[in-house]
Amino acid sequence: GEPTLNKKQFIDVLNRCVVEHPESNISVLTNAKTFSDLKFTCDVAGVSTANVIFCVSLHSDIDTIHDDLVGVTGSYDETQEGIYNLARHGLPIEIRHVISKANYSRLPEFSEHMYRYFPFCQHYAFMGLEVCGLAEKNFSDIYIDSHEYSEELRRAVLLLSRRGLHPSVYNVPLCSCHPEIHSFARRSISAWKNSFEESCAACSKSEDCCGFFATSTKKIAHTPNPFID
Fold it and tell me: N or C: which terminus of the chain has fewer CB atoms within 10 Å of its end residue's CB?
């Protein structure tokens, strides 16, 4: 769930984290809507440190697509305002873009939007979909196999990189990534929910690949592109 809904408790917990674990890197996964409150953002900045990064989910460069995916009208505007408020206070920001059937065709346009309107973020993560919870409930509307958007993803990643920004690819197997963006792909899936298919054992890149989500509640027939052996 959204960790900032109880504003006071969130600040208390964050403060305890940075005081008791000053060397730890802390990622706050948020939709950033609460940060549209400038005073709250200011209060968070008062306890945050450079080791804390705010990982903001942004599902499209089009407000209606984003709002449809999260199910709440007006969410895009609040999230955008939250991102700008975080930036105003110098807080590190990562944009997380989960790829789905609803937004994959606009991946290059999304990157262009990031470059023009959010170039101050430290990192931009393009993320494959974990099929569980609401993603399972709406499977037919949002799921798309990663091999189907390989070209759009290639263009999106290279657009940001060539302009001096810092993209990564999470949760997408290397066999679905064009070779030009292999260096941006990360072993991103936590070990406890990471799995591989039997055919992966013979792959020359399996040790560098993120594999698949063991937690996906639907068995997905993955069809890789023939980019690697």
Answer: N
Q: How many angstroms separate the CA atoms of 84 and 102, rounded?
A: 25
CA distance 22 to 198: 42
In sequence order, what are the residues at sequence separation of 6 or more whose Cβ sits closer than 8 angstroms to the Cβ of residue 132? 213, 215, 216, 217
* pLDDT tens series, the chain, 229 aa: 899 999 999 999 999 999 999 999 999 999 999 999 999 999 999 999 999 999 999 999 999 999 999 999 999 999 999 999 999 999 999 999 999 999 999 999 999 999 999 999 999 999 988 777 766 677 777 888 999 999 999 999 999 999 999 999 999 999 999 999 999 999 888 888 888 888 888 888 888 888 887 777 555 555 555 555 5
Predicted TM-score of the model (pTM): 0.91
Question: What is the C-alpha separation between 209 and 91, in angstroms, rounded?
Answer: 31
* DSSP symbol at 185: B
**Main-chain dihedrals φ then ψ at residue 82, nearest 5 degrees:** -60, -40
- Phi and psi at residue 145, to the nearest 5°: -65, 140
